[in-house]
Amino acid sequence: MKIRQRYVGPEGAAQDCYWMRRAVAQARLAEGATSPNPPVGAMLVKDGELFAQGHHEQAGGPHAEIAAFQNLDEAGDANGATLYVTLEPCSTLGLTGACTSAIIDHGVQRVVFGSVDPNPYHAGQAVSLLEEVGIAVTTGVYAEETDALIRIFRHWILTKRPYVIAKLGMSFDGCLTRPPGESTWLTSKAARRDAQGLRLEVDAMVVGAETIRKDNPKLTLRHPHSPLNKRPLKRYVLTRSGELPEDSQIFTDEFASETRVVRNAAWPDWLDNASTEGVTSILMEGGGACLTEALQAHAVQEVHLYLAPMVSGGNVRGIQSALGDRIKLRGVQFSMIGDNVKASAQLSYEN
Question: Among 260, 272, 261, which Cα is nearest to 232's?
């Protein structure tokens, strides 16, 4: 007999937050694997007891709610239960059936979700459909965390362009490099390992041509113990001249077919082209010139800065010319990775 987990604590909002946190943890099990869909987690709870849980594992596969129903010992166990799910259940037929129909069919008594579907054609429809048949609905629970889970999906749905994350390692004097003859590394091994985790969240990477010429990077997934490491990332190289070493790793390795050379293209244009290839998110990893142009084009939505404890005196700076507009950082978070400082934030642009 399966030993079920039980919530012990105050009722009401506190219990809802507890189970929604658990649903968020379920969703994170598949971060980076569900594109173009968002990661979603679900929990089925009755009388404070967990009966089943599930998450959306990959596009085209069962949604989180369906996965939770499939993990029940008995289908009837969901009768009278509360369903906690990080994103509003879908109400239309797609590659899978509508989750609202499955919720109704399983006799769920109450639905609690965190984030409203960002698609304006679907937003709020689940609430109406469920309440019409007498199922109670509570929304917005743990919404800050559930909204963070779908930030890439929301941007892609609303703009039809990929969500761009910028990552850079920098010294205290704002340099991306060290003087000639010194080690090429600024940040620590632990910080670089943490940065590898950012690659797991995206569909593609982009660097400037100078990064390819000088560093010959692999631009692949190499995070320790991740099952996603064999997933190919598309790799974009931005160049004016088109002159790139033919023996670069990105042109000769097993993922060479995923490499794209983008010559003399404005940021909005090549992002539109990337979107037609199914790319919903891009990590930018190389070059002050590349970063500066992206910021000037208002193309970056999120930044992760790894600050090394040194004054470098290198000759490549992170920002290489005036940006023109004010850039505001939202939701800034700081953390220590050994003796390196990591700063993360979302960006908004003001004229």
Answer: 260
Q: Are 38 and 201 in contact (CB under 8 A)?
A: no
Alpha-carbon dihedral sign for residues 86, 88, 93, 94: negative
Closest CA to 40 of 19, 58, 17: 58
Which carries the bigger pLDDT value, residue 113 or residue 313? Answer: 113
Coil/strand/helix, residue 47: coil
| Mean pLDDT score, 94-110 | 87
pLDDT band at 100 (very low <50, low <70, confident <90, very high): very high
Q: What number of CA atoms fall less than 13 Å from residue 108's CA on the CB side?
A: 31
23 by Cβ neighbours in 10 Å (0-12 / 13-18 / 19+) ranks as buried
CA distance 340 to 124: 43
Tell me the H-state helices in the chain: 13-28, 64-70, 99-105, 125-132, 143-149, 151-159, 189-199, 209-215, 249-252, 267-276, 288-296
Both tokens of residue 13? 């909002």
Check residue 315 and report its DSSP letter.
Answer: S
Residues 6+ apart with CB under 8 A from 195: 167, 169, 187, 304, 306
- pLDDT at res. 44: 97
In terms of Cα–Cα distance, which of 105, 121, 165 is closest to 304?
165
Identify residue 249 by its one-letter amino acid code.
Answer: Q
What pTM does this model have? 0.90
* Residues designated catalytic: 65
Phi/psi for 58 (5° steps) reads -165, 155
Residues 42, 84: contact at Cβ < 8 Å?
yes
Average pLDDT score over residue span 228-245: 86
The CA distance from 276 to 270, in Å, is: 10
pLDDT value at 227 more than 70 = no
How confident is the model over 26-68, as pLDDT tens digits? Answer: 999 998 889 999 999 999 999 999 999 999 999 989 999 999 9
78 has pLDDT over 90: yes
Q: Which helix (H) or strand (E) holds 317?
A: none
Close Cβ partners of 27 (under 8 Å, ≥ 6 residues apart): 39, 40, 41, 55, 56, 64, 86, 149
